[in-house]
Amino acid sequence: MIGALCGCWFRLGGARQLFPLSPLTKHSAMTSKGPEEEHPSVTLFRQYLRIRTVQPKPDYGAAVAFLEERARQLGLSCQKVEVAPGYVVTVLTWPGTNPTLSSILLNSHTDVVPVFKEYWSHDPFEAFKDSEGYIYARGAQDMKCISIQYLEAVRRLKVEGHQFPRTIHMTFVPDEEVGGHQGMELFVQRPEFQVLRAGFALDEGLANPTDAFTVFYSERSPWWVRITSTGRPGHGSRFIEDTAAEKLHKVVSSILAFREKEWQRLQSNPHLKEGAVTSVNLTKLEGGVAYNVVPATMSASFDFRVAPDVDLKAFEEQLQSWCQAAGEGVTFEFGQKWTQPQVTPTDDSNPWWAAFSGVCKDLNLTLEPEICPAATDSRYLRAVGVPALGFSPMNRTPVLLHDHDERLHEAVFLRGVDIYTHLLPALASVPALPSES
Ligand SMILES: CSCC[C@H](NC(C)=O)C(=O)O
Ligand SMILES: [Zn+2]
Ligand SMILES: [Zn+2]
């Protein structure tokens, strides 16, 4: 029964027949009627979504076991690299026919962000599918869909008997949602990573509510800055001079004025996208012990996201001068400071981009190349010289990552499998680069 229906689904997803139903309202036409009719790729996706890899205590063991089983089913080798105690990077490899060429790295993270269960319409770890075909789950968009799409695209291509010159590695990494410090940041420094000889990587992007697909070619640099102001303490009833609060207020005003300037720059230029300007938010205020005690120390924490074209040395000097202008005893420290922003070229001088965008053009997909406003594991890959694109093939889909009721329509998910089924042959067949001959 399932086999017969699978055949039907595969024909629907065949080459050049991608999503023949154009408007979003036609999603329901590709919806399964009941569990017995569900596409097996969707069933696999829902199984993966049920694994509780939720921060701050992800069940990584269950995810790794799931991936090992996928490797077994697909006939792929599976390597486990423990980059820190309990933090395993799982690598599934489909060898290419020409081992002298660099490889394609398909990256996804296994962890997901926490939920506020009371705000969800369905249990976020049940992977409930409603009658229209929407799958509700934490990780449905970010980014368990992509892990399964990679696996299912590879499975289809292998079943069809394809082989490509370049090796394809699928890396499944932990810890991304808390910064990747125990995941990709360590992995790229390991000999096991060097051995992969990654020439190009795909990683996560973002859903796009329009007909177009977002693709990230760079990221803003996260700078988390804590400003500490010290001043004269005393009784809350007095006019004390040189207080910590007064000086902190000055710095906060300078930074919020800068925020306003960047916001206006974004608003007034329709060619600029959010990732192209520097953003900042005041995210923490700390200090004080009682209403009537003027504290000697107060601090403010900011989440800066610095655009990739900003001179970082000059930007740090700007921070310094805002603090100095506020008075004596105002200092800053970094909670996070990324200083290696890289841009993956999006013109035909980059053969990886030519292959990626060429497939999208053939499939009639409109791309919106942008700078990622947030930070993903792509930054670690680009920093070690691997060009990377952030791509989550979800158009006509509201951006619901990290949100309540994160969900993805099964037809969009399946179309994503089709898209990778076309992308992988092109990327894994990019001819030898000058550096490889
Ligand atoms: C800077 S480490 C934290 C990483 C996190 N990534 C995402 C995608 O939300 C962020 O940008 O805040
Ligand atoms: Zn993510
Ligand atoms: Zn995330």
Automatic annotation (TrEMBL):
Primary location group: cytoplasm
GO biological process: amino acid metabolic process
Any one Pfam family match given in the protein's UniProt record, by short name: M20_dimer
One GO CC term, this protein: cytoplasm
Enzyme type, top EC level: hydrolase
Residues annotated as catalytic: D111, E176
Location of this chain's protein in the cell: Cytoplasm
One GO MF term: metal ion binding
UniProt: Zn(2+) 1 binding residues: H109, D142, E204
Residue runs in coiled coils: none
Name used for this protein in its record: Aminoacylase-1
Lineage top rank: taxon: Eukaryota
Cofactor section: Zn(2+)
InterPro entries referenced in this protein's UniProt entry, alphabetically: Aminoacylase-1_M20A, ArgE/DapE_CS, Bact_exopeptidase_dim_dom, N-acyl_aa_amidohydrolase, Peptidase_M20, Peptidase_M20_dimer
Cofactor binding note: Binds 2 Zn(2+) ions per subunit.
Quaternary state and interactors: Homodimer. Interacts with SPHK1.
Similarity annotation: Belongs to the peptidase M20A family.
Purpose of the protein: Catalyzes the hydrolysis of N-acetylated amino acids to acetate and free amino acids.
Keywords: Cytoplasm, Hydrolase, Metal-binding, Zinc
Domain (Peptidase M20 dimerisation): residue spans on this chain: 218-327
CDD domains linked: M20_AcylaseI_like
Catalysed reactions listed for this entry: N-acetyl-L-glutamine + H2O = L-glutamine + acetate; N-acetyl-L-methionine + H2O = L-methionine + acetate; an N-acyl-L-amino acid + H2O = an L-alpha-amino acid + a carboxylate
Residues reported in the UniProt entry to bind Zn(2+) 2: D142, E177, H402
Origin species: Callithrix jacchus (White-tufted-ear marmoset)
EC number: 3.5.1.14
